[in-house]
Amino acid sequence: MLKTALAAAAIVLSVQIAASAPLETTPVGRIFHYLRTNIDGTEPEHIHVFRPDATHIEVYKMQEKCTSAALVTADLDLALGYAPRITGGRLEPNAKHKQFAFITSDVPKRTITMRIDLSDSVIVDAPKEIKQQATANAPFHIYDFDLSDLTIFGPGLTKAAKAFNFDLLLLWPPHPDRKLRYLGRADFWFRGEEQRDGRAVRRYEASGPAFVGNGGPIWFDKAEGHIVDAEWKIPNHAEYKDFKLKLQGIDDGGAEAWKRLLTAHFEGCK
Q1: Bigger pLDDT: 111 vs 46
Q2: Contacts of 258-263 spanning 24+ positions with Cβ under 8 A
Q3: What pLDDT, on the 0 to 100 scale, is given for residue 2?
Q4: Which residues are CB-contacts of 121 (< 8 A; sequence separation ≥ 6)?
Q5: How far is it, in rounded angstroms, from Cα 118 to Cα 230?
Q6: What angle do CA 247, 249, 255 make, to 5 degrees?
Q7: Taking residues 143-155, what's their average pLDDT?
Q8: What pLDDT shows up at residue 130?
């Protein structure tokens, strides 16, 4: 349970953009359903991303109904294109959740702080300075969040950009010290337009020091900008050997549909 919820309390994306220009984003009220696996399809976990309003997202992660599941909430910075505050927790019956992991970042100061409140202890990673490798003022992000913020900011990133980058971090339980680790700069390069699963997409290649030659492609919907598929050679969770994130569906049902989805997780469970 701890592994799933902690890994959910994280982030991945940013962009070269002026702080005064809000980034184009996906619609408020939309729910994205992704499946995270190894590239060969093993170790499936469902990732649901909901944007309840302009400046927040909620992410529900589960493997099977009636089992432990994570629910993460995050604030969005629309100018810089990242989430400066992330709160991880457990999903509980009746769509409630219990918070226990708190991550706060400060781009101007280049620091990130983590606090995890457990039943018998508190883990605190004091403000850690992050060495900037990406474009000046670009936010830094955490890989474990399964690209949830990237799909929200995708329209602004891919509409005209031929390249963008960000500094990448990782929170990867059960790492012995349970601390954030800096991976380096992640670069994205536009490779062209193509068809993927019957959709018109824009393909980018992930590379740079963060991937040490083990990046891979990521496909964004050409018209709407959200992620359609990604296949990277480095994993973002301890039990995985690599990384694949594939879109399963989109629901524009808003808050009512989101509440039904969360409530259904524990309905009828013994």
Answers
A1: 46
A2: 258/31, 258/50, 258/52, 258/58, 259/95, 261/31, 261/48, 261/60, 262/60, 262/71, 262/91, 262/95, 263/94, 263/95
A3: 38
A4: none
A5: 33
A6: 120
A7: 93
A8: 61
Q: For residue 227, what pLDDT is reported?
A: 97
148, amino acid identity: S
228 close to 197: Cβ distance less than 8 angstroms: yes
Residues contacting residue 172 through CB under 8 Å, at least 6 positions apart: 7, 144, 181, 236, 237, 238
Q: Distance (Å, rounded) from C-alpha 260 to C-alpha 263?
A: 5
Structure tokens at 254: 């808003």
Contact indicator for 105, 115 with CB cutoff of 8 Å: no
- Summary mean pLDDT of the chain: 84
Spatial CA neighbour of 198 closest among 240, 247, 153, 158: 247
Residue 106 CB neighbour total at 10 angstroms: 12
- The arithmetic mean of pLDDT across residues 27-48, rounded, is 98
Angle at 155 between CA 154 and CA 159, to 5 degrees: 115
Span 39-61, pLDDT tens digits: 999 999 999 999 999 999 999 99
